[in-house]
Amino acid sequence: MSRLTSRRGALLACAALCVFAFPAAQARTFLKNGFDPPADRPATDAEAARFLTQATFGPTTAEIAKVRAMGYSAWIDQQMNQVAMTAARPHMEAVSAAMVAAGGTDTIGQNQRMSRWFHSAVTAPDQLRQRAAYALSQIFVIADTNGSISGEPIQMSEYWDLLARNAFGMYRTLLDEVSYNPSMGKFLSHFRNRKAATGREPDENYAREVMQLFSIGLYERNLDGSPLLSSGQPVPTYDQNTISNYAKVFTGFAYNNAGTNLFGGTNTYLPMSCVATEHDVTAKVVVGNTTIPAGQSCANDVRDGLNLLASHANVGPFIARQLIQRFTTSNPSPAYITRVAQKFNNNGDSERGDLAAVIKQVLLDTEARNNTPPATFGKVREPLLRLTAVLRAWPFQLPAATAYGEIRMGMTNPTGAYAQRPLGAATVFNFYEPDYQHPGPLADANQFAPEMQIINEGTTYSISNSLADYTFRYYVGMTNPPTDRPLIDVTALAALATPAAMVEDVNQRMFYGAMSSNTRTTLTNMLSFMNGATPSEKARSLLQIAAMSPEFATQR
């Protein structure tokens, strides 16, 4: 068979793979799902890999072995308490300093921030912390698409580190640090926000979003996330007057070393200070119709205003649902949301807002650890997480660091291919919204699918094309390999004796042992069609088609 015919067969196999419907996993009864505690130690590599798919940027063989040896809970505890944080800002400062020392024209930019993010996502040992920071970055959104911070890669790297530092801390502390962060201040315009004067009112942007997106949401909620109704209608959590009064709370913010000059100080990543003469000291009626008294300092106004938000009954279910959606499933049951919200309200030690306890509950909940989940459980895998999973599943040869210390990962602007960019959403509403329902069968079934908001014909093509770069086009052993990207090493996969053995290796590494029989047959047949191909071509084609498959694009 000619190589052209072999490739034609592979493409036909791909077409078949992209249209078949794979069967849903068998559902357990509600009682079984709701009350039987899950085993803490995975019984198989597949169970460990499924857990790591939820908790990290993708399973590795080493991490699978560790989870099997330690158990889920102990692995989480080690990640939270013993593994050092991989920081972004110090690395960015070092790269910038090297550029300055070189005396050339190169300057630090968002490309270097992207390289650092991808390298950390793929190689950092603190996987759960980095994954949690990624989840939080889609709730507490800032974006380099905003001109006020697009030229601030070091400042934005500090914001990422802020999220990572607080990922296992207290929600109230996180809310405080986010509010004082200069990147957030510029992004949502409470940086240099001034008290009212003739012809001028305080900017309301942050006041609105800190309520709508970062804490309580638009409507009062029950503990299970369902709307609290009055006369059959949802009850708003705040009104325009609340926004206007919170805008007064967030006045006077300036650079950390601004002193008494609102427009003074130097550009820095340090927490913002407050210029007293520009802070509104009038009484403020805020959430819950509570009055913050007149005459207080900026710090005390912010403290009181954020305390009221953080203690609001909505925060538990509001944050719980979104973290569940980022880690495990787009459509958590009311009981699942309730259990996570309860953990937010009380971690067992009468502490509220313990994010470590919340994330642990998200990952260890009986619904998350049910290895035969109902058909409604799971989520569309974020495009970027498809790439990181591939990069972690297989051996890759990383490029040497540049003269400045940057390790390039072949992806400086993932928005073009993946419709996502860490800290790079188009708006404060993230890449997609938690309540997005894709038109068609999902919407008809009242099912949410946030990630589908960025999936269309164009992005399906661009994602597949980029995944082909990482799985097929650029590989160890090629002639004139690029020096700005990882190269996949398929030596071990190509050496397997049969197509069935190759497909099973892919099944274990990429599908946590749950590949459907249809997918298995399609991939095996594809390899059989490629009689004229080299072992490397077969292995790389297998990875390319597997990475493009609808089954890999879903997380169960």
Description:
This protein has 556 residues and is mainly alpha-helical. The two termini are 38 Å apart. The chain is globular and about 80 Å long. It has 25 helices and ten strands. The chain has a domain of 93 residues. It has a two-stranded antiparallel sheet with strand order 1-2. InterPro entries: DUF1800 (IPR014917). Keywords: Signal.
Classify the beta-strand content into a percent band: under 5%
Distance between the termini: 38 Å
Outline: globular
Number of DSSP E strands? 10
**Residue runs with pLDDT of under 50 for 5 or more positions:** 1-35
Major sheet details: 2 strands, antiparallel
Find the structural class using helix and strand composition: mainly alpha
- Give the rounded overall mean pLDDT: 94
Q: C-alpha Rg, in Å? A: 25 Å
Number of helices: 25
Side by side, the strands of the main sheet go 1-2
Helix content: 40-55%
Signal peptide: 1-27
Keywords: Signal
InterPro entries: DUF1800 (IPR014917)
Descriptors for this entry?
single chain, 556 residues, mainly alpha, two-stranded antiparallel sheet, 10 strands, 4% strand, disordered N terminus, DUF1800, signal
What's the layout of helices and strands?
Blueprint: H1 3-19, H2 30-35, H3 45-55, H4 61-70, H5 72-81, H6 89-102, H7 110-123, H8 127-137, H9 153-166, H10 171-180, H11 182-187, H12 205-212, E1 229-230, E2 233-234, H13 240-249, E3 253-254, E4 273-274, E5 284-286, E6 290-292, H14 298-310, H15 315-327, H16 334-345, H17 355-364, E7 379-380, H18 383-393, E8 396-397, H19 415-418, H20 441-444, H21 457-473, E9 487-488, H22 491-494, H23 499-510, H24 517-529, H25 535-548, E10 554-555
Helix pairs in contact: 1-24, 3-4, 4-5, 7-18, 8-9, 9-10, 10-14, 12-13, 15-16, 15-17, 16-17, 18-21, 21-25, 23-24, 23-25
